[in-house]
Amino acid sequence: MNQNLYLTSAYNVKMPRIIYGTAWKKERTAALVQQAIQQGFRGIDTACQPKHYNEAGVGEGLAATLNKGLERSNLYLQTKFTPLDGQDPLRVPYDVKASLSEQVAQSFETSLTNLKTEYLDCLVLHSPLADTEQLQEVWQAMERIFTEGSAKQLGISNCYDLKQLEYLYRQAAIKPAVLQNRFYADKHYDRCIRDYCKQQHIIYQSFWTLTANPHVLAHEVLKNLAAKHGRTEAQIFFRYLSQIDIIPLTGTTSVEHMSEDLQIFDFELTSNECQSIEALLLD
């Protein structure tokens, strides 16, 4: 295992520095997951949310690759518990009348079945609940899954309020090891949140990384660095993020782009080059 391709979390979980995201893949999910792993991806992100994810399809893609000699321990798998307001009312993967704690447990059992695995490397709360009592109930239910050994670490997604993250961190017995957010200008690229994550050894994962940043990718700085290194602008941006210990998700459906995304570890940006990209993300 090349250690440069992994970050180690506060819970001693090795996380690939780039992860394949499976949202919006629908009936293509199984084939794309299989393709991503064959290309070399070792981290897969999904959710127990039929509205946007085909989690069972992820499981089919995983099974196809595991049957060909790859072991479960070679992969980093994370899924999410999605609260009711993020679900399609007609396809909720748990009993809507059950308590929040039971919903978390039912959702997680569904994920294990879908993904054909006995454990997950990370269980993520898909979005924080505004009511603090409800947030605590959900997180404590996730903590029980961690304590049982069924999830190696916990995380939270779509959390853009630093005070909310600080509250969760203070209250939690099992602290969040991962924060996964959209990475975009409207939220100032989560600079304050990322500073807090660094202080608390929470690993920041970015999604919407390329889609939300066409202005960055089109900038002369990126174009010049791409020409200098013989890379694409996307590779330069992903490499920059990996060098500042952000783990980007990529959901590409192109084999060529999958291959390019994995080649970002074949070169390195200088500190001055990183600073020139950082400057583009400042207001």
Structure, described:
The protein is α/β, with parallel strands linked by helices. The chain has 11 helices and 10 strands. It has helices at 29-39, 55-66, 100-115, 132-147, 162-171, 191-200, 214-217, 220-229, 233-243, 255-262, 271-280; strands at residues 6-8, 14-16, 19-21, 43-45, 76-81, 122-125, 154-157, 178-182, 203-207, 246-250. An 8-stranded parallel beta barrel has the order 3-4-5-6-7-8-9-10, surrounded by 5 helices. Strand 6 (122-125), helix 4 and strand 7 form a beta-alpha-beta unit. The longest helix has 16 residues, at 100-115.
**Low-confidence regions:** none
Which sequence of strands runs across the widest sheet?
3-4-5-6-7-8-9-10
Mean of residue pLDDT? Answer: 97
Bin the helical content.
40-55%
What are the defining features of this structure?
8-stranded parallel beta barrel; two-stranded antiparallel sheet; 11 helices; 10 strands; 14% strand; single chain; 283 residues; alpha/beta
